[in-house]
Specification:
mainly alpha; Growth Hormone, Chain: A; MFS transporter
Length: about 425
């Protein structure tokens, strides 16, 4: 806990942390409200809920070749700021589309806003890598996990409350405000040019198709030369399948099996239970990170969460499902803190944007495919139990895969690119 307090003495990190916090809060509120709106209005067409999630994941495939290159070649601070500004403007446009009730335009704007938001994370992650030391990476990963747990605890519940109170328009307005706050906080950061432009300054007219293609290829070559990165990225691809399933599973099992009449209220309760368990799991995992190897944390977390995801699909009552949800929440932080603390230790700061530029689209590709399959097959060939078995089985598969591949690379947990230490003191 002392390390977490100390890291906030870094002003730049504090600003970046809170910018991410506000941006993520608005996004979660917007997703929760949109899903409820569609489930309410199109209750006989559950594929709309999956389609909504698809509009948040599929856009990555349209911009994946650009996000990493821009994060490494252009000013990372400006990329993050303009990403927030554009998302805020698109939120206002989305309010108009909802008002005129034209669903094709609603989905188009969701797609476009999501595409723009994909430029934010690689740029922000690369900046954070540059302002922290190697010993602070795991601390920052623990903080990110705790933040995610708080969103799980309050985000969906807050989104549902805003939807009930102010409607979908009110939830989208919250998105606009949070994007603007995030941009202002990032703009307030005072950052060294070595962090913002680690590969030197480039002009927009230099980023032609050939330049972008070569940079994108360099990112792939860099990954393929590092077996550990290859193994981690294989895991990220499977995590995309998991994310796709987890994004709709709770709503589906509550609405179509356990609590058809009261599913909204139980979604709030489930969010609280899951958030509390993830928060507790984050605290325990952060403490255990000093006693366990990072790969051990990842494998333990995957085994625990995967087993209980499978079991939760066979719940006979809501209360059994809530109990399994709590156990899943205790295991997931081990995975996120383990990988989140490991990745910046082994990636050169000059390549972080391009590495992230490969990780995110691969995750979103598998997530998009999963959501597409769910939208087409749910209640036809894919059952509630089958959906849980798919997601839990993927977690267990990655856990076994990592059990046989990661231990040989355990010494790489301590490796840090030489250029990191030069910029970490800023």
């Amino acid at each position: 806990m002392r390390e977490m307090i100390y890291i906030f003495k870094n002003r730049n990190y504090s600003l970046l942390f809170w910018s991410s916090f506000t941006s993520m809060m608005g996004s979660i509120i917007g997703i929760a409200a949109m899903m409820l709106y569609l489930l309410d209005r199109y209750s006989e067409q559950p594929f709309y809920a999956a389609l909504t999630e698809l509009m948040y994941s599929l856009p990555t495939l349209a911009v994946f070749f650009l996000v990493g290159v821009l994060a490494d070649r252009m000013n990372r601070q400006k990329i993050a700021i303009y990403s927030d500004y554009i998302c805020a403007i698109l939120s206002l446009a989305l309010m108009g589309a909802v008002y005129i009730d034209w669903m094709p335009l609603v989905f188009a704007l969701l797609f476009l806003r999501s595409a723009v938001s994909k430029f934010f994370h690689p740029a922000q992650a690369a900046i954070i890598q540059g302002i922290l030391t190697k010993d602070e990476y795991t601390v920052a990963a623990g903080l990110n996990q705790m933040t995610s747990s708080l969103f799980m605890l309050f985000g969906n519940a807050l989104g549902i409350f805003i939807y009930w109170t102010f409607g979908l328009q009110g939830a989208i307005l919250v998105c606009f405000v949070t994007y603007m706050i995030s941009a202002i906080l990032i703009k307030a950061c005072k950052l060294d040019s070595k962090i913002l432009l680690p590969n030197g300054s480039h002009k927009w007219n230099q980023l032609n198709i050939k330049f972008v293609a070569n940079d994108f290829k360099e990112g792939l070559v860099y990954i393929l030369k590092n077996p550990l990165l290859v193994y981690l990225i294989i895991g990220f691809f499977v995590f995309g399948i998991v994310n796709g399933g987890l994004s709709v599973m709770p709503a589906y099992i509550l609405k179509y099996k356990l609590a058809p009449e009261d599913y909204e209220q139980f979604m709030v309760i489930m969010g609280i239970v899951f958030g509390i368990s993830v928060l507790l799991g984050s605290i325990v995992a952060s403490m255990m990170s000093k006693k366990l190897k990072l790969y051990q944390m990842v494998i333990i977390g995957l085994g625990i969460s995967g087993a209980f995801v499978v079991a939760s699909g066979y719940s006979s009552t809501v209360y059994y499902y809530l109990a399994f949800t709590a156990l899943i929440g205790l295991g997931l932080p081990y995975v996120n803190i383990g990988i989140g603390g490991w990745l910046p230790r082994i990636v050169d700061p000059k390549m972080m944007g391009r590495v992230q530029g490969w990780i995110t689209p691969l995750m979103m590709l598998s997530q998009s495919i999963t959501l597409g399959v769910i939208a087409l097959t749910f209640q036809k060939t894919l059952t509630i139990e089958g959906l849980h078995l798919l997601v839990g089985g993927c977690l267990l598969f990655v856990g076994l895969f990592y059990l046989f591949t990661l231990p040989k690379h355990s010494t790489e947990e301590e490796e840090v690119p030489s250029s990191l230490e030069k910029s970490a003191s800023v």
